[in-house]
Design goal:
Elements: H1 5-28, H2 30-38, H3 54-94, H4 98-107, H5 109-123, H6 125-146
């Protein structure tokens, strides 16, 4: 069964929409985007937490403040990256440049690979594989768009 041109175009625009949605999330809701990408720091259930010394508490507070400054400054940058790719894909699609949509989609897999590695390290194999499956679907779409 062959996939129609209309379907390939719709799939290409779904990649554009995905990038735009991720970009808007990073820009408008940086803390939510950070939790979605790297998740909360896991702690084993039932692990006793030692009472920290005053120096350890101060170090934790400094680290927490650093994270509070990090997330609102970095997540919007990642969001702008994704939004710019999504808008480029949308404009190329509007110009009926579907082969180029495929090329940009495939080139964006470099970023997807970095995201997969980050999510795998921070959230574990299940989340990493889920993101890798999404990236593989985008690779399928990009490769399919190259064919016409």
């Amino acid at each position: 069964m062959e996939i129609s041109q209309h379907t390939w175009r719709a799939l290409g625009m779904s990649v554009s929409g995905g990038y735009c949605l991720l970009g808007a999330l990073g820009i408008l809701f940086p803390h939510a985007a950070a939790v979605l990408l790297v998740g909360p720091v896991p702690q084993a259930a039932g692990t006793p937490r030692p009472i920290p010394s005053p120096a350890e508490r101060a170090a934790f507070i400094r680290a927490d403040r650093a994270n509070d400054n990090f997330i609102p400054n970095v997540m919007p940058l990642l969001g702008a990256r994704d939004l710019s790719i999504g808008l480029a894909l949308a404009l190329l699609g509007r110009a009926d440049r579907w082969r180029e949509v495929g090329i940009v989609t495939l080139a964006g897999l470099v970023l997807c690979a970095a995201d997969v590695v980050t999510v795998y390290k921070r959230r574990g194999a299940a989340w990493g594989l889920l993101l890798a499956a999404g990236a593989a679907f985008w690779a399928f779409i990009g490769y399919g768009l190259l064919s016409y």
